[in-house]
Amino acid sequence: MYDWWVFIHIVGVIGFVLAHGVSTWVALRIRGERSPERLRALLDASASTTVAFYAATFLLLLGGIAAGVDGHVFGQQAWISVALGVFVAEMVFMLAVTAPYYRRLRRVMAIEQGGGTAVGAVEIEQMVTSSLPLVTFWVGSLGLLLIVYLMAIKPF
Questions:
Q1: Domain segments of the chain as ranges
Q2: What is 51-102 written as a DSSP string?
């Protein structure tokens, strides 16, 4: 059964990277975008992958944890626990720091689209030029590379 769990884990990883890749591309792209219509389109593209992202994350975790239990590596090889810890820390960071930024940006863009006067070009400019998308990109990328390193090299 171990091989099947690993297969499920790898399918989840592929889905995770594909779905999350859209959001990563959007995070890098919005910094250079000033058109409200294009910003909304980018945000919609990112949001459209949410279900696939969470389904893939579920498979990734299910397969990885089940393979770790089935293969008896949790108690014997520390790398798997460290990799899981890095993944959970990344998720907490993204939910606590990144998600509120994108919720706020979506709200600002909805107010702008509705013709509200509470939001203007200055507020949109401040939001899209924020360094947070770059910070998020680097935190996510380095975390993913660390997890790949732990899985491939198994240093512990």
A1: 2-151
A2: HHHHHHHHHHHHHHHHHHHHTT-TTT-HHHHHHHHHHHHHHHHIIIIIHHHH
Q: Where is 116: in which H helix or E strand?
A: none
pLDDT by 10s per residue, the chain, length 156? 999 999 999 999 999 999 999 999 999 999 888 888 999 999 999 999 999 999 999 999 999 999 999 998 887 889 999 999 999 999 999 999 999 999 999 988 988 888 877 777 788 888 899 999 999 999 999 999 999 999 999 998
CA Rg value for the chain: 18
- pTM of full prediction above 0.70: yes
CA nearest neighbour of 6 among 65, 85, 74: 65
- d(Cα 91, Cα 120) in Å, to the nearest integer? 32
Q: How far apart are CA 37 and CA 50, in angstroms?
A: 21
